[in-house]
Request: fold
Amino acid sequence: MDEASVAIFLVSADYLTSNFIRREEVPRLLERRKKEGFHIFPIIIKPCLWKKVKWLSQMNVRPIDGRAISGGTEHQIDADMVVIAEEVEKIISQKIKRPNLKESSVSSEGISKAHPLQIQQKTILPRVYDEKKIPPIGSQELPFYIWDAQNFEGFFYDINDDLCTESLKLLQINLGANERTIGIDKLVYSTTAQLGKLKVVTNGLGWNSSYWDADTAASKGLEQAGSGKAFNQGNYYIIGWQGEKYVALNGKVDKLAKLMLEQGTSVADKKTLTVGETWEVGDGWTLTATSIDAKATPRQVWLTLSKDGVKKDDKVVTSGGSTGKPIYTYVEKSLAGENDVPVFVTYVDSVFEGATKDMVQLRYTWLISSTLTEIKSGDTYGVFTDATVSGKTLSLKNSNTKITLSPNKIVNLIGNLKFKVADRLDVLRFHPVIYQTRH
Reply:
């Protein structure tokens, strides 16, 4: 127990009433959590009164909506366990000590002798596929070639939360100067939704990842944060798509909304508005400080939210003190077949008197596009079709299109994601690139 990397609590009525668990196991693990940041995953296996247990109710349980796994269908149970397994695997892999690259010797083929290429051990492959410098794909040393955010900077990566969701897997054997074709189903693009916490929760309300109070969050203005909702426990699902940060709508990885804005946490990220001033937030959305009252108790601002010049909502938001309600959440009743979708969130950090006009400062603003990308199995996305969803992972294969890697060519894959091929005839050398569109 003292050497474990992760603790998984299989929560049921029997678990909660076990004297040994309550008196021996739980206190020791909670102490490790407090001192070392030890990871605990409580999984609600069967219906029970877990919310009445103080230490457990303050944790992020799995599934995140707090329901018991045993109540789902066989498919739902499998999907829940896949999501949990992916989270646990990520935590464990981060704890495995990475090799010291400075101490590793490199052979003439470019492969580390001290740490051979083994996909199973998460060794990072070179960005450039070069047939002269790697073992053949399909061999024991290299069952497949893969690009992700660790070896391709074009894919989405959140350095603050260490979130990397995209990968491109190459399965074609005998690929080289004499065989430049990637066959059917031999290139797979995958992306996995991962949980992220709203900054309005971690920084606005000041709650860490292990604390959650649904009633207080609602009283402060955060909507759709209850069990089974889009912002359950202040979380939402982040997913990379063609190198950019998207949101999986209500956790659905086949319904993607681009994250248009997510203000940072520094003072410089504040947005200040005076009375009557309008902020062009993005994607046609604007926010106007219709009225500000810095003398009221608590201080307040009347905000009006519009889309493409049409008013969508308005609300009076208050700041400061225990009685304030500083969070403004706008929820679309229906979007792409999903009900009650949060689209916009902001936090009233302060309201104050200026030299000539009252002012409001907004922080931690979050906005997704209302134009959705819906992934359907029969549709074509560049060279990819045959979209499949497994748990929180979306995968596409080149099921209908062979890919030819001709010398000195840019080969389109999907959107701005492409392969760049060297101009050499005697060796096959290529790597992925993403061409960003300039506005």
Summary: Helices lie at 13-17, 19-36, 54-57, 74-95, 199-204, 214-219. The radius of gyration is 25 Å.
